[in-house]
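Structure ticket #2291
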Amino acid sequence: MRADLLFHVRTRSANQLWLVIVDASASTRRHHALSDAKGLLAQLFDDAYRQRARLALLSASGAAPKWQVQGLKASSGLRHWLDGLGAGGGTPLLAALSEAGQWLAARRKRFPAEQQRLLVITDGRIKDGATLQPFNCPGLLIDIERGPIRLGRCKVMAEQLQSEYRHIDELLPG
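Resolution: structure written out below.
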């Protein structure tokens, strides 16, 4: 029968995209902040793989942000990048947030049904007075600032991004 030969579209939920921005500037080396963040990222990559989510990964260190992956399915290849992730240089986090916002808006036009989420991992060491634009998706900012003197800028950043705020120490076991 002709009806038996017709292609049937599988019903499934919309694809998910997790946009992860990692601040890997020199200041994140202090007090094992980036090392602990790498542990959280390893778990996140595993979760993304199990949930068949797509990842966009942007690192902010040195002079300019750098895309590691843009919308690819999570894979074990990310583990190699994570193992080699080191901290150094300046903090192009503002440039990374701006670039990511533009990329996400363009992607939303191409894939309107995609469920997008934002994760920012930073110690908040950006210029005073910087104003951040909110992303049009749910977000989480993980504060990795540690040490005896904390500037505490991450809560303000999370508010401006209209994202949830959590300190890394709340997320680590024991």
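Closing remark: The first strand starts at residue 16 and ends at 23.
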